[in-house]
Amino acid sequence: MWAADIDGGVLHRDQARAAHRYIALRSEADYKTLELGNPCILVQRTTAPEQSRRLVAVELTDAALAELGGGVVVENHVNVLRENEKEPLVSRSLLTRLLSTETLDKLVRCISGSVALSAYELESIPLPDAQTLALWEKLDASTLKQEVERTYLLSD
């Protein structure tokens, strides 16, 4: 998967990269090291200056993995966010939705003025407490947007 395949919250295969999609995984070690076979969140690590957003994320779901043959290899301009706990405080779905808000995009621009977004900078994004995250899990897109703006004090 190329960074260009992560666009507008949708994972797709950008046709401009079609000729560059071949990679030979020759050993079990290659597969173990390079292949993503579990759901995660993919975030563009580098965006172009003309892009309207710096924070561009998409959830790589079980369904998407199945559609893509069960696993993918990502190029070096993609950050991969995976759970490191059995019961994380925030679901992949909600975290993807949060990263896709205009509010967090603005916040990331405050953390760094660069078009590159490192893992360190992603880790620096402050999230609300577990109780607030739990309340946000079931909110529709419009209500979530309002709550995120209110929480990060970007609206009255």
Descriptive overview:
By secondary structure, this protein is α+β, with helices and mostly antiparallel strands. It has one domain. 35% of the residues lie in helices and 13% in strands. The chain contains 7 helices and 7 strands, in the order ββαβββαββααααα. It has helices spanning 28-34, 62-67, 92-99, 102-111, 119-123, 130-136, 141-151; strands at residues 6-7, 10-11, 35-36, 40-44, 57-60, 72-73, 78-81. The strands form 3 sheets. The chain has a 3-stranded antiparallel β-sheet with strand order 5-4-7. It has a two-stranded antiparallel ribbon with strand order 1-2. A two-stranded antiparallel sheet has the order 3-6. Strand 1 (6-7) and strand 2 (10-11) form a beta hairpin. The chain is globular and about 50 Å long. The relative contact order is 0.15.
Could you name the ranges where pLDDT drops below 50 across 5 or more consecutive residues?
none
Number of domains: 1
Total of DSSP H or I helical runs spanning 4+ residues: 7
**Helicity level, as a percent range?**
25-40%
The radius of gyration is 16 Å
Order of helices and strands: EEHEEEHEEHHHHH
SS-based class: alpha+beta
Oligomer: single chain
Q: Mean pLDDT across all residues, rounded?
A: 89
Q: How many extended strands? A: 7
Which term fits the overall shape? Answer: globular
**Largest sheet descriptor:** 3 strands, antiparallel
Distance between the termini: 40 Å
Give me the side-by-side strand order of the main sheet. Answer: 5-4-7
Hey, roughly how much beta strand do the residues contain?
Answer: 5-15%
